[in-house]
Every structure is written in C-alpha cells, then in structure tokens.
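Try it yourself: sequence plus phosphoric acid mono(formamide)ester, in.
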Amino acid sequence: MADKALSTKHLLGIKYITREDIALIFETAKEFKQVINRPIKKVPSLRDITIANLFFENSTRTKLSFELAEKRLSADVINFSSSSSSVKKGETLLDTVNNILSMKVDMVVMRHPAPGAPMFLSKHIDASIINAGDGTHEHPTQALLDAFSMQEAIGDLTGKRIVIVGDITHSRVALSNIYCLQKLGAEVMVSGPPTLIPQDIGALGVRVEYDVKKALEWCDIANVLRIQLERQNIKYIPSLREYSAYYGIDKRLLDSISKKITIMHPGPINRGVELSSDVADSDQSIILQQVENGVAIRMAVLFLVAGLKQ
Ligand code: CP
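Structure, out:
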C-alpha cells in the first residue's frame, strides 16, 4: 500500500481539504466498496478505536451510514441523540463532548444545527472530528458521496456540468457540493427561485439560472435538493404547490429536454414537491446508489481521519 494520508486531522468541511485529499478518499472508498460487496463485509481496520456519533439534529441516512461504516471497520461505537440527553437539562456542547471523551473516545462524528459547531469543538478537544452536517454550513461526507457517485455515472468530472436545483440558501449540501465539484474541475450551476438563491453566490464562481428547464438543458447531472421548511422562519415561496409547478422535476419536464441527464437527490425527498416519483424511481435516478456509496465513503473518511494510511 502507498504511504498516503489526509492533509488534515479533522473533516470539518470540503473547503478545508485539498483535491488530493478528495482523490485519496475516493481511492480508499473504491477499495471499501469492494469489501462491503463481499460475503464477509467486515475488516479489522479500526479495532480498538472508539467512535462517538453525536447527533444534535435529526438524521436517517447519515447516522445509519456512519454507524454501519464504523461497524464494518470493527470500531467500538457509542450513539448520542440530543433529544434524549442531558442537553435538555442545560448542559453545554463542550461539557457534553468532554464528558463523552473522558470515557476514552478516540473520534467524534457530529451533526449539529449551529453552523461552525464542529470547528468550535476542534479548537477545544484533542479527538478528531468529522462533520456530519452543521446547520446551513457544510455536509462534507454528503458532497464526497455525491461526487463519487457522479464519477461512477459519467466518469472524470473535469469540465462536466452539474446543476444543483432547489433551496440553495438553506442547504449545507449545496455549499459542500459546490466546493467539492469545483475542486474536481466541474462547472457548477445553481437553479431555483430567486428567493432561495443567495444574491452573492456568483462570488463562489457558480452560474445562476432561474429557469429550471434551461438549467436541465445545460447540465450533465442535476442534483435536486429539498425545500428546508424547518430552517425557514419566513416564507420564501408562496406555497409548495407553486414551487412544484415552477421548479419541481417530473418525467414530462425531463422528456422535454434534448438529452438524457442523471438525477440525484441527497434525501430525504419530498415526493411530488421537488421530484416526482416517476423521476425519483426511474432509471435516470442514482439516488439509491448515492446511499450505497455513502457507506464506502464514510468508511474511507473514518479510516483516513483515524490516521491510517492508504
Ligand atoms: N442526506 C442526509 O443528510 O440525510 P439525513 O438527514 O437523513 O442524514
């Protein structure tokens, strides 16, 4: 095996890792994808390493995917959910994490509603931290599994055209995807209602197209996002029905464009709002491949962040 390691001790965001880090994670994930498709899916790589999954916000895919990845790597795993914890009694984030770490935990996977929470922790604790989504900021492992799935679908992303459709303003997936895809040489466009696209997003070097049909005509892949009503304290769109009529992607819209594009979605899907079932479940969709790849990507990230060399 080559003697390659990540340039960073934590995975706080795609912004803070290099193109070489991404390539190393993908190379490692390819090997782990073979492992999890074997009859014996477990390897001893993280034996004697203890990982705490700290989820201060709801999750289905990310939480289960990290837990499965940790178990496939033979790590010891403890799970924390803020809804049933002493956070409800007023304990601070730092006190909570320091108490968990004093139980001899080596690594932390954390989802938190506050942007920057993993960065804050990284300055106060010694253990490595993997960001599993921090508010509207970043969701790095989602972007890695998205880009890995895109490469599987259409090859090298250099010069490829990817559109991210939907609620860009409130999406950590959008920001991490933009950073990741640009580091891999792709051209990135965002599309959605003007109220859900930050006015200064052009500063990140992305194109903006408010007409979703034109955006679909332009792209090779559309990564479709959910309207995050839980993060909207004012109304950004008149109604979900109107959003669906103007920005929802259905089979009729896809059939009306001149080429066959690939459709992705990080989940959870609001079926009938941003994506119709006849698209989500079609052969143009790679949504379940994204979920499968999530386990291999998270195994790779855990393995490399633990300081193990590929
Ligand atoms: N894609 C994603 O982060 O899904 P969960 O919120 O279910 O983890």
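One thing you can check immediately is this: The chain has two domains: 14-139+291-307, 140-286.
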